[in-house]
């Protein structure tokens, strides 16, 4: 049992509390992968302040590992949360033991009944040359052609239309597809990409390809079998 001046920590952590923390582990890995190797992401647990780090990615920036203690800033933010309910303070700059300058942000994680159970922290090391940091954020133009298409749209119709246009372009560039088999090949690309999970996809694709919905359904049944 954690003995603390904070009223929320007079009881043991439940399995649900721990599950809440664990559910953020993959998010930590995802954010670190997105931002790059100069980004440290940490999940702290309030079950033990002395061993609060339960997940850390790129911990070499601060020299920490799983089992490391909470920071003084972490305790300060917990105290602020207890007083104000503020879960996400503004980002701040701090300095690691080796002198590295970090830009950081911390969010309080809450479990059942809004009980604070931990912290989610992101630290970006700004001490590396900016060109080196930007290199991890800028796409390699030699690989851009092989990158996946992603459509950011305000409506499902636009998502379907863009996916269909990409599928048509892919099939048009495939010399192995005959003229007779193009509609089926286009439908297969859309099927593999999950576009028919959208309700209006069948009608919209059939209309733009100039075929019936029955034909689309027939193709889909073949793909599934």
From TrEMBL:
A UniProt-annotated Pfam family = HTH_22
The organism named in the record is Vibrio aerogenes CECT 7868
Q: Which PANTHER family match?
A: TRANSCRIPTIONAL REGULATOR DAUR
The name on file for this protein is: YheO-like PAS domain protein
Superkingdom, taxonomy of origin: Bacteria
Q: Which residues form the Transcriptional regulator DauR-like HTH domain?
A: 164-221
User: Boundaries of each YheO-like domain copy?
Assistant: 23-129
Q: What is the lineage of its organism?
A: Bacteria, Pseudomonadati, Pseudomonadota, Gammaproteobacteria, Vibrionales
> InterPro entries, per this entry?
DauR-like, DauR-like_HTH, YheO
């Amino acid at each position: 049992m954690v003995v603390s001046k904070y009223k929320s920590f007079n009881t043991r952590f439940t399995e649900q509390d721990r599950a809440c923390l664990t559910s953020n582990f993959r998010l930590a890995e995802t954010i670190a992968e997105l931002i790059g190797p100069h980004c440290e992401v940490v999940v702290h647990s309030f079950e033990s302040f002395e061993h609060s780090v339960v997940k850390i990615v790129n911990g070499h920036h601060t020299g920490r590992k799983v089992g490391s203690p909470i920071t003084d800033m972490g305790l300060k933010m917990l105290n602020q949360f207890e007083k104000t309910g503020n879960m996400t303070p503004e980002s701040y700059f701090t300095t690691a033991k080796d002198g590295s300058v970090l830009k950081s942000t911390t969010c309080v994680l809450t479990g059942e009944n809004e009980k604070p159970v931990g912290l989610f922290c992101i630290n970006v090391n700004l001490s590396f040359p900016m060109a080196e940091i930007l290199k991890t954020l800028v796409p390699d133009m030699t690989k851009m052609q092989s990158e996946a298409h992603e459509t950011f749209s305000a409506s499902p119709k636009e998502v379907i239309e863009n996916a269909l246009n990409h599928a048509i372009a892919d099939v048009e560039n495939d010399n192995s597809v005959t003229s007779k088999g193009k509609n089926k090949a286009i439908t297969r690309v859309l099927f593999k990409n999950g576009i028919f999970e959208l309700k209006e996809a069948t009608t919209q694709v059939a209309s733009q390809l100039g075929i019936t919905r029955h034909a689309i359904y027939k193709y889909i049944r073949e793909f599934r079998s």
